[in-house]
Amino acid sequence: MPSRKFADGEVVMGRWPGSVLYYEVQVTSYDDVAHLYTVKYKDGTELALKESDIRSQSSFKQRKSQSSSSSPSRRSSSRSRSRSRSPGRTARGRRRSASQSREQKDDKKKTIQETSLAILVLVLFKPSENNTKRYNGEPESTEKNDTSCIILEQKLKPDLEVKRVLEQYSLRSRKDDKKKEEIYSEKKTFVAVKPIEKVPTKTKELEFGGRIGTFMLVFLLPATVFYLLLMCKQDDPSLLNFPPLPALESLWEGRVFGVFLLWFFLQALFSLLPIGKVVEGLPLSNGRKLQYRINAIGVLLYFEFELHYLYDHFTQFAVSAAAFSLALSIYLYVRSLKAPEEELAPGGNSGYFIYDFFTGHELNPRIGSFDLKYFCELRPGLIGWVVINLAMLLSEMKIHNLSVPSLSMTLVNSFQLLYVVDALWNEEAILTTMDITHDGFGFMLAFGDLVWVPFVYSLQAFYLVGHPTTLTWPAAAAFTVLNCVGYYIFRSANSQKNNFRRNPADPKLANLKFIPTATGKGLLVTGWWGFVRHPNYLGDIIMALAWSLPCGFNHILPYFYVIYFVCLLVHREARDEHHCKQKYGLAWERYCQRVPYRIFPYIY
To answer: Is the pLDDT at 198 greater than 60, yes or no?
Structure first.
């Protein structure tokens, strides 16, 4: 096993990926498995570099001194060789040789001066407050509304930057340049540049409480679901009135599990039908883009059994979904052990079994063209949520002998149906979310998609079946307005973000201002994203409150969803904050100064 060359804390010269330029960096750690050094640049940017991309500072100084000391000797030997030429040559030939020699030496000197000048210009003529701008040719202004510059920044390469500076500050005369072009046009050489491959590193910063936290969540999440469902069945669903535990044999029924499997696999079959458009996701770490078929809006099913059956066996359906999600999570982890390194999730590659099992080891597990994570994010759980709500509405009418559903049940169903239809109609927007681009597919998302979403998000409708609430029309109108406000903020903010990510050069977005970053992407500072950093979270929370208010104020149980959702989004915002700070560096700090509030304006 090769020994490391550079120690932690040592200041060295690190090559910026994709360029020939070296910058002063400090070694922070070393990965013995991947043989990569984690180095920190002066602006705070941290990258993983190979040992071949790192040089000691002394080697740079030594080369400089050797270059300066060897020049006189070369000039001296050149003069001596010139004087010792054959006496048979004519004086004119000697003069021409001496003249050519002087031109060559002058050319060499100019080349060295130009290279030094190019590097000097790159260093001096860029703002010193953000070194990442120098690495990527980022413009000096911190706020722009010209979306075309993002496209240029993505195409700009460091070697082209050096070439541009050399041409701009050339020390040669135009006559010399013309001669050079004539010479090089006769013998052109094409050099194939090998692209730098990104080697995935181990996940060092563990989330969700690390190994202990994820181990506890594997048991805590299912227990929470069953506790909530058992509480809703009680006549007095107060928090202090703990429900009696049912017999274990009553929690499982083969027919219920069969119905759940039928639902899941029929949804999978419909998602594979050759209908709807095919779109590309965001580029992966290796530059590849996955394709996704968009057809979820047309995949609503009708089952040939009475929906009241779903209400009567609701807890058994939840147990069946939990058992299936656990089996799916085990399959996902086992198959991820054979996945290539570049297909592993950046946040689920820690090397610890329980952590990677919970967060997801593989980023986009696929069976052929069938993407398991993308399918579970939208189809069985989200559409199942609507089916469960409809079953609760029909059960309320049957149990209480109503000819029409109650106003409270109608509002809850309508509000949540709008949310689901919006998600399915804008199915393509999910491809830019954190779940798809960063999180792996493990127990966290499998349980969340198949159990938590359909059985916890439908808690208000389930509560209203056993605890009907009378609602006045003015109150219903106020709740409707509140939901519409939340939906408008949620949808318009997400549309701005998704359209800007997909096509920043769209003329419709010309009025949006942004802060350019070293990655070539921009951070929006106008519209909803200039109001708070996560306006879509704000709209989500407002809608969650509107869904709970029709249940009245007798118990806190139907407000579990909005309380949980605030905690979830605050935690997710903290994760976003951490990742964006690492990814965008000082540009993110400038964005935070420009937009100080995270979710709630003037509060948080």
So the answer is: no
CB 438 within 8 A of CB 579: yes
β-pairing, 366-367 with 291-294? Answer: unpaired
Give the closest residue to 271 by CA, choosing from 295, 254, 304, 245: 295
- Concatenating the DSSP letter of every residue in 363-382 gives SS-EETTEEHHHHHHHIIII
- Three-state DSSP at 243 gives coil
42 within 8 A of 131, measured Cβ to Cβ? yes
Among 464, 443, 453, smallest CA distance to 423 is for: 453
Half-sphere exposure for 160 (CA within 13 Å, toward CB):
8
- Mean pLDDT, residues 588-599: 87
Q: What is the pLDDT of residues 404-413, one digit of tens each?
A: 999 999 999 9
* pLDDT tens digits, 312-355: 899 999 999 999 999 999 999 999 998 888 888 877 778 889 99
d(CA 536, CA 135): 32
Class of the domain covering 10-57: mainly beta
CA distances from 214 to 173, 209, 450 (A): 67, 6, 18
Residue 469 has phi, psi (to 5 degrees) of -125, 130
Q: How far is Cα 404 from Cα 414, in angstroms, rounded to an integer?
A: 14
One DSSP character per residue, 152-199 reads HHHH--HHHHHHHHHHHT--S-HHHHHHHHHHHHHS----PPPPPPPP
Which ranges of 291-341 would DSSP assign to H, the alpha helix?
308-312, 314-336
Overall pTM surpassing 0.90 (yes/no)? no
What is the b/e burial string over 16-32, where b = at least 16 CB atoms within 10 angstroms of the residue's CB? beebebbbebbbeebee
Boundaries of every domain in the chain: 10-57, 203-469, 471-603
Rg (CA), the chain: 32
Q: Which of 120, 221, 156, 126 is nearest to 453 (CA)?
A: 221
- Contact call for residues 595 and 529 (beta carbons, < 8 A): yes
Model confidence at 178, pLDDT cuts 50, 70, 90, reads: very low
**Rounded to the nearest 10 degrees, what angle do helices 459-466 and 560-584 cross at?**
170
